[in-house]
Write a structure and sequence with these properties.
Elements (H helix, E strand, L loop, with lengths): L3 E2 L8 H5 L3 E5 L19 H13 L2 E5 L4 H8 L5 E4 L4 E4 L2 E4 L7 H13 L9 E4 L4 E4 L6 H13 L8 E5 L2 E5 L6 H12 L3 E6 L5 H12 L4 E7 L6 H4 L4 E3 L2 H12 L1
Parallel strand pairs: 1-13, 2-3, 2-11, 3-4, 11-12, 12-13
Antiparallel strand pairs: 4-5, 5-6, 7-8, 8-10, 9-10
Length: 267
């Protein structure tokens, strides 16, 4: 099913604006910040930051679920009082302390060794390729490479033939390949946990990538089970596969429209 353009259907979301049990759950890169050539260049602008503060003050919960490490996500967003979850659900902040999900720490050394191996091998010779050590996750960015599809295949094949990748979970996002612990945690699992722990009635989830698909599906399942009212909002782009688009309720065109939607929710 093709998602609907959000601003043509705001009347369907009126009840979300006034429900004291509403939560806003959002990705970071590509959703509340523009996609940048490198992760370090991305930023949440001051207007978005102030708007997130207003959302926090109005609604029961504002949560950030990011592929970044949880400390990186918190520092980038820069708003106190939000729930921060990092590395696609593998870690979160609780009273200022990083909490890893059970079993995640067991893969730390293996991921680090894989990063060292790949960083010294043939992939290191590819211009524009960037390795990002996020602790619980090794991310390989190829956005800055010429012929990105060829580079993507080279990354996947190299990882597949590395003994250090054995039993790790390999996933993909927008111009990125990631190596993570082999655990069943994703944005959907974390979203369901948040719903149960926070006693939420309505949830708006916003994301822009393949990794947000799990959250879109979980939200739909929870609604079908009668546990919550939920909507998913995709920040659309040419990099998003159709199957991700078809799993969302609504779409917007860019980060500026996410901000516009947040301002409508506050108004």
């Amino acid at each position: 099913m093709t998602p609907k353009y959000l601003f043509n259907h705001l009347n369907e979301l009126e009840e979300f604006r006034d429900d004291e049990k509403t939560a806003i759950v959002t990705d970071v890169d590509g959703t509340i910040s523009e996609i940048a050539p490198t992760p370090d260049e991305a930023m949440v602008n001051p207007v978005m930051r102030k708007t997130l503060v207003k959302l926090k003050n109005k609604f029961k919960l504002v949560a950030v679920i990011s592929g970044r490490s949880v400390l990186n996500a918190r520092n980038m967003v820069g708003v106190e009082g939000l729930l921060y979850v990092g590395n696609h659900g593998l870690e979160y902040l609780e009273n200022g302390k990083i909490i890893m999900v059970p079993g995640a720490a067991e893969s730390l050394n293996q991921i680090k060794e894989l990063g060292m191996e790949l960083g010294k091998g043939e992939l290191s010779k590819i211009s524009g390729l960037m390795f990002e050590d996020k602790g619980l996750c090794l991310s390989i960015h190829y956005r800055g490479c010429e012929n990105p599809e060829y580079v993507r295949q080279s990354i996947l094949e190299t990882i597949q033939h590395s003994p250090q990748s054995k039993n790790l979970k390999i996933s993909e996002g927008r111009k990125i390949v990631e190596c993570k612990p082999p655990l069943g945690y994703d944005k959907g699992v974390i979203l369901e946990n948040i719903v149960e722990q926070q006693d939420l009635g309505r949830v708006i989830y916003l994301g822009d990538d393949i990794t947000d698909l799990d959250a879109f599906k979980t939200l739909k399942d929870l609604e079908n089970e009668g546990k919550i009212w939920g909507i998913s909002v995709l920040v659309s782009s040419s990099e998003i596969p159709d199957y991700v688009k078809e799993s969302s309720s609504f779409y917007v065109n860019d980060v500026n429209e996410v901000l516009k939607f947040f301002e409508w929710l506050i108004d």
